[in-house]
Amino acid sequence: MSDYSGRHRPPTRAERRALERRSRLPKSFSATYALPTAAAVTLALTAVGATAAESSPFSGEVAEQAAASLSATTLLEDPQLGKDARIEVAAASRDSSGLSERRRAVSDDVVDSQVRAQERADRDKKRKELVAKKKAEQKAEKSAAGWVRPLASGSLTSGFGFRWGRLHAGVDYGASVGTPLRAMGDGTVVGAGPMSGYGVYIDVEYADGTVSRYGHLSSVAASVGQQVAAGDTVAYSGNTGRSTGPHLHLEIRPGGGEPVDPTGWLTERGIL
Predict the structure, then answer these.
(1) Burial (0-12, 13-18, 19+ Cβ within 10 Å), 162
(2) Least trusted range by pLDDT, from 117-121, 130-134, 225-229, 268-272
(3) Where is the M23ase beta-sheet core domain positioned along the sequence (predicted)?
(4) Contacts with 203 (C-beta within 8 Å, 6 or more apart), sequence order
(5) Tell me: the pLDDT tens digits for 111-170?
(6) How far apart are CA 130 and CA 125, in angstroms?
(7) pLDDT > 50? residue 206
């Protein structure tokens, strides 16, 4: 059929229908199916955001932020977008940004709390390790039978034997004035105070009847009749009596009798 209808002839019915078909919008774009502006913007924002999130190399909150930012930017740059829709998109973008900042703040608080908790745990662990180390050192000081050395540290400076025409009835340990002296085992204080030649002394009797005597003390820290345990401080070293310098004079008296060379007794108990 020709499009030309002549100068004065009106279009026929068939021609009018053909023209209407050409100008008619698709059914999906008719008023019945058109979405309100706000709903259309929301759908567009959701669709673009989902696409960005799926294709993003990030994950979690980073991907959400990237998708939201990309959606808002894309829609705001659309020349077909109305003024009201632009306002809604911008508001949605601000809300998304604020939510991300709040999430980040909460995340930072959680991290800080975890760091502080870990620091406390580390400090507690170090304290426990120090306590355990100290106990292990104290335990190591004891022999298998539960004996300890009279001093925490110190070396022998003089042995048992005759010296200058008289018997040196014990062994000497170098120690400055005021050094704590310990009971070598569980026992009872059976003597303490001043004595000629010894200056200030203290005697401790152990379960097997052996008596240890500490001489030339500056002071005693236990009284006669007191029960003491291995490692308890019973006196402090000094330079009293017949002494040429501060030290501990130690004698071993089996059964409370005459002194013997302490070396063998100390060696047998692993505390020489």
Answers:
(1) exposed
(2) 130-134
(3) 167-262
(4) 189, 190, 191, 192, 211, 212, 213
(5) 888 888 888 899 989 888 888 887 666 555 555 568 999 998 888 898 998 887 888 999
(6) 9
(7) yes
Residue 6 amino acid letter = G
Instruction: Map out the domains of the chain as residue ranges.
Output: 1-141, 156-268
> What's the predicted TM-score (pTM) here?
0.50
CATH assignment of 156-268, among 3.40.50.2300, 3.40.50.720, 3.20.10.10, 2.70.70.10: 2.70.70.10
| CA gap 105, 201 in Å, rounded | 70
Six-digit token pair at 62?
């980073």
Contacts of 138 (CB under 8 A, 6+ apart): 231
Q: In this structure, what token pair is assigned to residue 55?
A: 């294709």
Residues comprising the chain, all counted: 272
Give Cβ neighbours of residue 177 (< 8 Å, ≥ 6 apart). 218, 236, 237, 238, 239, 246
Q: Which tens digit of pLDDT belongs to each residue from 164-190?
A: 788 899 999 999 999 999 999 999 999
